[in-house]
Amino acid sequence: MPSSPGQIPIYGKILFIQDVVSLYLLVEIVHYVNLGYRPLDYSFTGAMIIVGIIAVTITGLAVGDLYSFNRNKTAFQMASGSLLSVLITSSIIASLLYLTKLTDLYSILWRGNLVYVLLLFALWSSIIRYISYLVVDKTKQPEKWLVIGSKAEEILFEDKSMNEARDHNLINLPVDDNKINDLELTINDHLVEIYLDNKEIYSSMVTGIIIEKIEELPYHLISQLMSLRLKGITIFDLASYFEFFYKRIPVLNVGPHQITTSEGYDLLYKGTHNKVKRIIDLVVSLFAILILLPFGGLIFLLAHYNQPGTVIYKQKRVGLNGVEFYLYKIRTMIENAETEGAQWSSPDDPRVTKIGRILRRTRADEIPQLWNILKGDMSIVGPRPERKEFVNELEQLIPYYDLRLMVKPGLTGWAQVMFPYGSTREDARKKLDYDLYYLKHFTITFDLLIMFKTIRVVLTKSGI
Question: Quick check: is 5 in a domain?
Fold first, then answer.
């Protein structure tokens, strides 16, 4: 069975352990050398500060996807990503410690100790990831997955880079759909053997098998798949494969029973989760307003002097339970940009002003939505709110689109950090895949992960 979303593969486990150990050793060494060989303060609070520094730093690396091996990246990208991640988390750690005045109380924070530790760790973690990537890239073999059925083949082979990033070598079984029910599957000395009309058509070692819809297979074939599963071969239907590995639920390939009978969707009905989520929304939005207030004034002035008309505008969007509210944004388009009615925006939209392109690229145009969050119209994390005109159209075209209206819309969301800018109905369908995954797998820690990923997306100018 491949590692689950909650598990870290061996590559990541080794990196994780060495990161924790090396960061702790750097704390000890720098403190010992910089303070004249004075031992560390191991009071309860002092120890918690050390644990907190390590936890925040490791979280930043995890959010940056720096504990997984991805062949679509280079060794340099892994190293530079590590460096950027540690520098970002370092600024967060330093800000919190200096604001709380803890730097005056504990020796680990004296004489620039923390700065030395984090800078050395940033350099060390980058070197380690550069070397480990080169080693693993030369030795790791991709997983082999057997795809049965033309529909599964069509969808999975649509974007090969997606599977290459997961080190999945997809192999299509050469058999017509109308012959699938006649297949015979066995395993012999770790080799999966498949027969059709008493003739062997496939024999090889595989990690797993992907079939579009297992529930539509005859009993004898389901029984054979069960036998393979009990001997270590992973079996997925198409929807489960996407959910397990790519953190999305493909709306076009999931049946109503998979939504109505599956676990999850706690955000839709558990009041406690919603109350905690609301508290986090208030805390984070207030903190963000305080931090961004000086920049907000500068952005307001730049927008005011570089494009005529009002700077902040409001527009009706559809929120929780389909109720409309006014969403606030810094205007990035020319005035009267929709004289002919609601239109889809595009990456190179000619209606966007020069300063508007900069604001969109940095997501600074979304800052006024912190007010929407304080008012309770929106949450920090959730599906992005859409116009009523688009919602009405998409509900007719895309299955389960109305489910995204059962939670508050968000300033950012799982779809925004996992999928590039969308400007078509097909993009809206793909983003719904990620929104459904978020609704099913919501936890407070998942929300925090999305917040951290959003920071990374904004800084690297990708996604959303």
Answer: no
Are 132 and 183 members of one domain? no
In percent, the amount of the chain with pLDDT more than 90 equals 34
The answer as to whether 257 is a domain residue is no
Do both 305 and 180 map to the same domain? Answer: no
Residue type, 194: I
- Distance between CA atoms of 412 and 417, rounded to whole angstroms? 8
Alpha carbon distances (Å) from 248 to 37, 132, 156, 396, 436: 52, 29, 13, 21, 7
Among 110, 139, 168, which residue terminates a domain?
Answer: 139
Same domain, 187 and 322: no
**What DSSP character marks residue 148?**
E
66-88 tens-digit pLDDT: 888 776 677 888 888 889 889 88
Is residue 205 domain-shared with residue 310, that is, in the same domain? no
CA-wise closest residue to 238 among 225, 250, 256: 250
Residues 148 and 51 in one domain: no
- Phi, psi (deg, nearest 5) at residue 411: -70, -35
Residue after which a domain boundary falls, among 139, 163, 194:
139
- As a three-state string, the secondary structure of 180-236 is HHHCEEEEECCEEEEEECCEEEEEECCCEEEECCHHHCCHHHHHHHHHHHHCCCEEE
pLDDT tens digit string along 91-124?
Answer: 888 777 777 666 565 556 665 778 888 899 999 9
What pLDDT sits at residue 1?
A: 46
Into how many domains does the chain fold? 3
With CA atoms as reference, report the closest residue to 49 among 113, 97, 98.
97
Residue 451 lies in a domain: yes
CB atoms under 10 Å from CB of 31, counted, come to: 24
Nearest to 163 by CA among 13, 2, 347: 2
Q: By residue range, what is the domain housing residue 93? A: 10-139
Whether the CB-CB separation of 46 and 65 falls below 8 Å is answered with no
What are 116's two structure tokens?
Answer: 């030395």
- From CA 115, how far away is CA 98, in angstroms rounded? 12
- What is the value of pTM for the model shown? 0.76
324 shares a domain with 446: yes
For residues 53 and 79, membership in a common domain is answered with: yes
pLDDT classification of 6: cutoffs 50, 70, 90: very low
pLDDT at 39 over 80: no
> Does the structure show a pLDDT above 50 at 5?
no
